[in-house]
Structure formats: structure tokens, C-alpha cells
TrEMBL record:
Source domain of life: Bacteria
Species, as recorded: Halomonas flagellata
Gene3D superfamilies, alphabetized: NADP-dependent oxidoreductase domain
UniProt entry keywords in alphabetical sequence: Oxidoreductase
Protein name: Aldo/keto reductase
Pfam family for this entry, one: Aldo_ket_red
InterPro entries: AKR, Aldo-Keto_reductase, NAD(P)_OxRdtase_dom_sf, NADP_OxRdtase_dom
Residue ranges occupied by any NADP-dependent oxidoreductase domain in the UniProt entry: 17-307
Length: 333
């Protein structure tokens, strides 16, 4: 695995990281700052050492939040952020921009917001189809040479894009959605990561809350919650998806674990190079997720789970057409 993630062992970290996005972005109203800081402090105290944020999240507010929370703790954590996708206040929308000058400017701004002189991992948040991946990665490679970042990451890219990027510069990690009900990395990306000794950092490992069994009616989510606009959570598709949960919940009950813990245990069983970064707005859920660290599934249970929520059974695409336009990953036909 990448030397970047050897740092997790140095800081005696659990395997799972913490996705910080939920505190500021995408899942309804942002958590008030004082409450969010308490949650991040609690996460550190309970053992989290890998913290993941991005320029986009909360229109840069999430980076400032994480920077405040980790002040005085920087040498004890693996800190990751992302650039190449940011909110443009003049246009009033997010913009994907992978030009070298943009990546440098955004990375340096992230360092200031996070209160650090370097990032352990810096991702190209989305592939900019107008810019050859070699140019974007080359720019990130120069930031590595300058010591501003320790490792390069890519997010939501295909196996082909990873191979092109890797020819330009070593890639420490690819971040992609991966869970029992989203298995797109298994098409080609996971194999490509292993060819290049690249870690797969799995975001939304709990299926955006679906696999916890707590999202019973998406219509009750806040209007600003991004899931309300995702096909799998639509009024047409969600009841069909809920029916897939019954057998999964039964296995969790048999093992006397929560559904979320079972979902994380299934994911880590896919290989030591798969690193989940579940996000949560709840301290209790952060603690529950860490409880999956000690859960080991036997072969029979893994085989049983593998037969559930297969791509042909899941109703609806991962993203809407507008959201999918920025995604480079392989999709099931």
C-alpha cells in the first residue's frame, strides 16, 4: 500500500477515516460550528486519525472547521483535502477546473484554511475533461516536490484514467463510492489500484445512510439534502431498494451488530487496501462505526452478503444525469 497510508500506523490509527463533509455540506443544513467542533474533538478522542475534507464542502467552510478542530494536533493525524472542484460565487454553482494554476491556487488556499504547511493527501476532486489528466497530475507532482503535499489522490476516476495518471506520477489513493449497494469499483478500478499499489478510499461506505436502515422515507429529508435528487432515493425506486434491506438486517441481527457495522465489515473484508471513510453528524454514530474495526466476517457470511444488493437488483442510478456529468468512473450497463 502507499507510503502515505503507512502514516496511519505511525499515529496508531484505526483503519477507518472520518469523512467530514456531512458537517458542512450536502446532507441538509450545516451543523452549527460549536456543535461540529465538539463532534470533531470527540472523533479525535475516540481514535480517528484520518480526516477527509475538500475545498468544495460548505464553500470552504468545512476546511476552516477541520483546521480549527485539529489545531495543535496536526502531527498526530493524516489530513486529506481535495481541489479542482469549487463553488464559484460569481456563477452561483460549483465548477470543475483541473488546470495546473487552479490546483496550485486552491491547494495553497486549503493549506491556509487548514492551518498547516502540508497535506498528507491531496485529491483531484473531479476529472476536468478539458484538461489532460497528465497536466493535472503533473501540477500535483510539483506540489509534492515542494513539500506542500505528501501524496496525490484522484476522486471518482476510471481505471483508464488512473493508469494514465500513474504514468505521470505515483498516485497514493483513489477515492470512489464503494459499498455493498454500490460496487462500481469492482468493474475495473479496484484491479487497477492493485496494479499500481494505490489505496482505494471508499466514501459513502454506508450507502449514504441507506445501509444503516435509518432512512425510511427520503421525502422527510431536508429539501437541501442531496439524496432527494438521487435516483435511488426517488419515490419510485426507494421502496424497491428498501425491500433489499430485509435480508441484510437479518444478518446484522444474527451477528448482534448494527447494520452500519456489518456494512463496514463487509467493505474492509474486500482487502487491506480498501479504506472506508464513513461520515457522520452524530458522535454516537462515529463511535458505532469505529466498533466495526474488530468485526471479522467468515467466508460464508461474506458469500451470503455478496448475493444481496447486486447491481441488477438495485433500483436507480447512483447520480442524476446532471451529477453524472462530472463522474469518470465505470458504470454498470
Amino acid at each position: 500500500m502507499s507510503t502515505v497510508f503507512a502514516r496511519l500506523k505511525e499515529v496508531a490509527s484505526p483503519r477507518s477515516g472520518l469523512g467530514c463533509m456531512n458537517l458542512s455540506h450536502a446532507y441538509g443544513s450545516p451543523v452549527p460550528e460549536a456543535e461540529a467542533l465538539r463532534a470533531l474533538d470527540a472523533a479525535f478522542d475516540m481514535g480517528y486519525r484520518h480526516f477527509d475534507t475538500a475545498t468544495l464542502y460548505g464553500k470552504t467552510a468545512n476546511e476552516r472547521l477541520v483546521g480549527k478542530a485539529l489545531a495543535g494536533k496536526r502531527d498526530q493525524v493524516l489530513l486529506a483535502s481535495k481541489g479542482g472542484m469549487a463553488f464559484d460565487p460569481e456563477l452561483g454553482r460549483k465548477v470543475v477546473d483541473g488546470r495546473p494554476e487552479t490546483l496550485r491556487r486552491q491547494c495553497e488556499a486549503s493549506l491556509r484554511r487548514l492551518g498547516t504547511d502540508h497535506l498528507d493527501l491531496y485529491y483531484l476532486h473531479r476529472l476536468d475533461r478539458r484538461v489532460p489528466i497528465e497536466e493535472s497530475v503533473g501540477a500535483l507532482g510539483r506540489l509534492v516536490e515542494e513539500g506542500k503535499i505528501r501524496g496525490i489522490g484522484l476522486s471518482e476516476v476510471s481505471a483508464a484514467t488512473l493508469r494514465r495518471a500513474r504514468a505521470e506520477h505515483p498516485v497514493a489513493a483513489v477515492q470512489s463510492e464503494y459499498s455493498l449497494w454500490t460496487r462500481n469499483p469492482e468493474i475495473a478500478l479496484l484491479e487497477a489500484c492493485r496494479e499500481t499499489y494505490t489505496a482505494l478510499v471508499a466514501f459513502s461506505p454506508l450507502g449514504r445512510g441507506f445501509l444503516t436502515g435509518t432512512v425510511r422515507d427520503p421525502a422527510r429529508l431536508e429539501e437541501s439534502d442531496m439524496r432527494r435528487h438521487m435516483p435511488r432515493f426517488s419515490a419510485e425506486n426507494y421502496p424497491r431498494n428498501l425491500s433489499l434491506l430485509e435480508d441484510f438486517m437479518a444478518v446484522a441481527s444474527e451477528l448482534d451488530v448494527t447494520p452500519g457495522q456489518l456494512a463496514l465489515a463487509w467493505l474492509t473484508a474486500q482487502g487491506d487496501d480498501v479504506i472506508p471513510i464513513p461520515g457522520s453528524r452524530s458522535v454516537d454514530h462515529m463511535r458505532e462505526n469505529l466498533g466495526a474495526e474488530s468485526l471479522r466476517l467468515d467466508t460464508a457470511t461474506i458469500t451470503r452478503l455478496n448475493a444481496m444488493m447486486t447491481p441488477d437488483q438495485v433500483a436507480g442510478a447512483r447520480y442524476s444525469e446532471a451529477q453524472q456529468a462530472d463522474i469518470d468512473t465505470e458504470e454498470f450497463g
